[in-house]
Specification:
Elements: H1 2-24, H2 30-56, E1 64-65, E2 68-74, E3 79-82, H3 104-112, E4 118-125, E5 132-142, E6 145-152
Antiparallel strand pairs: 1-2, 2-3, 2-6, 4-5, 5-6
Length: 154
């Protein structure tokens, strides 16, 4: 009976540890997203476009953190780099819409033409949870590009 209790306690401890690990994965905050986007813009200025696009496209690179990843668009809505889905690179997303029918990339490049950093909200699939969630994207226009990173809103 004691062995069974010890085994049960061990199992309970392992399960508690597993649930702690899962809950320890926090979502990114808006200040963290802003910092990451500024870091990507600084990298772009220091290392050029092609090196930046390659670095952003690395799923395990410096521009991916939990549910935060960088995306770089041209002002024509063409994806030049995407930290969560490299298959999007080269695609023009001008007409893509979220589940509510919002043409969020079209809105994003229109906002970027004002040449000032901005936040934009829409709904998108969270790569960590796999669920469609409200998202806020922080973007900094840089020449004919817009560098963005976002947070999922709970």
């Amino acid at each position: 009976m004691i062995a069974l209790s010890a085994r049960s306690l061990l199992l309970a401890g392992l399960l508690a540890g597993a649930s702690f690990t899962a809950s320890a994965v926090e979502t990114v905050t808006k200040p963290e997203a802003e910092t990451m986007v500024r870091k990507a813009v600084a990298y772009l200025k220091a290392h050029g476009r092609e090196n930046t696009f390659a670095e952003v496209n690395k799923k395990d690179g410096q521009f991916v953190d939990r549910d935060l990843y960088i995306v770089v668009y041209g002002l024509d809505a063409t994806v030049h780099a995407h930290g969560a889905n490299a298959r999007m690179v080269g695609k023009n997303l001008m007409e893509i819409k979220d589940v509510d029918g919002k043409a969020f990339v079209k809105e994003r490049v229109t906002m970027a033409q004002k040449k000032v950093p901005f936040w934009q909200e829409y709904k998108f699939t969270n790569p960590v949870s796999g669920k469609i969630e409200p998202k806020a994207m922080y973007c900094i226009p840089e020449e004919d590009l817009v560098v963005c990173g976002g947070v999922y809103l709970k």
